[in-house]
Amino acid sequence: MTVRIAPSILSADFARLADEIAMCEAGGADWIHIDVMDGHFVPNLTFGAKVIETVRKLTDLPLDVHLMVLAPEKYFDSFAKAGATTLTIHVETAPHLHRQLMKIKDLGCRAGAVVNPATPVDTLSDVVQDLDLLLIMSVNPGFSAQSFIPASLGKIARAREMLNAARSVADLEVDGGIGRATIRDVWRAGANTFVAGNAIFGAKDPRAEIAVLRKLCVETV
Ligand code: DX5
Ligand code: ZN
Q1: Closest ligand to the CA of 178
Q2: Residue with the nearest Cα to atom 1 of ligand 1?
Q3: What's the gap in Å between 175 CA and the centre of ligand 1?
Q4: What is the Cα–Cα distance from 129 to 203, expressed in whole angstroms?
Q5: DSSP characters over 6-72
Q6: Residue 109's closest CA among 129, 133, 92?
Q7: Spatial distance between the Cα atoms of 174 and 186, rounded to a whole number of angstroms
Q8: pLDDT 10s per residue in the chain (221 long)?
Q9: Active-site residue among 30, 35, 38, 132?
Q10: Catalytic residue check, 77
Q11: Which residue of 10, 85, 155, 178 is surrounded by the most CB atoms within 10 Å?
Q12: What is the distance between the terminal CA atoms of the chain, rounded to a whole angstrom?
């Protein structure tokens, strides 16, 4: 399985965004993770299409856009136009998940679905064939630098079983509290894509940290 490291720019220094993105590229990041928060679904407010468009101009890396917003479909068009590669929506905000995933694909983006720590991964069993990415939150969304919730490991393993049983090649991504202390177990549980905010941007040498995290997975194959 290919290991993918996706730095979350929520933890970047926005006054130096171009440098931060260049650092991610130089460090070998696979994707750039962009956390969109609306202050309703989660208790924090971040950014929208304008920032996605700005990041799109700064890099050719895939943009992994995580929508922590109510009524996510309101933003599909503008985010796709802004250059998003993947749009990932929360099951908790998507009563018509199948329709919403189809809409994302129609716009030419990869379609992702994400579950909060309290939401069972089984809620995705009937759309598993439609997913390009399945994201497991290992913290309650809203803020960076929170602690990894240990019960997420069992859930990641169940998600891996579900994807394998469906012969799905969707990426299994994990978001929240990923760092040196947790990434190895998350990889062993079956994830291949790792979002990291604080662990990368808070590191002494952020560029080198991307390689350190990747190596912790690869070494334990
Ligand atoms: C949490 C966001 C995460 C966050 C991760 O609500 O979805 O992407 O930035 O930050 P760390 O890696 O610091 O937990
Ligand atoms: Zn995220």
Answers
A1: 1
A2: 141
A3: 6
A4: 37
A5: EEBGGGS-GGGHHHHHHHHHHTT-S-EEEEEEBSSSSS-B---HHHHHHHHHH--SPEEEEEESSSG
A6: 133
A7: 8
A8: 899 999 999 999 999 999 999 999 999 999 999 999 999 999 999 999 999 999 999 999 999 999 999 999 999 999 999 999 999 999 999 999 999 999 999 999 999 999 999 999 999 999 999 999 999 999 999 999 999 999 999 999 999 999 999 999 999 999 999 999 999 999 999 999 999 999 999 999 999 999 999 999 987 65
A9: 35
A10: no
A11: 178
A12: 9
For residue 142 and ligand 1, the question of a CB distance below 6 A is answered with yes
Cα separation, 155 vs 161, in Å, equals 10
Residue 61 is which amino acid? L
The tokens describing 30, both together, are 């696979």
Look up residue 3 and give its two tokens.
């290991």
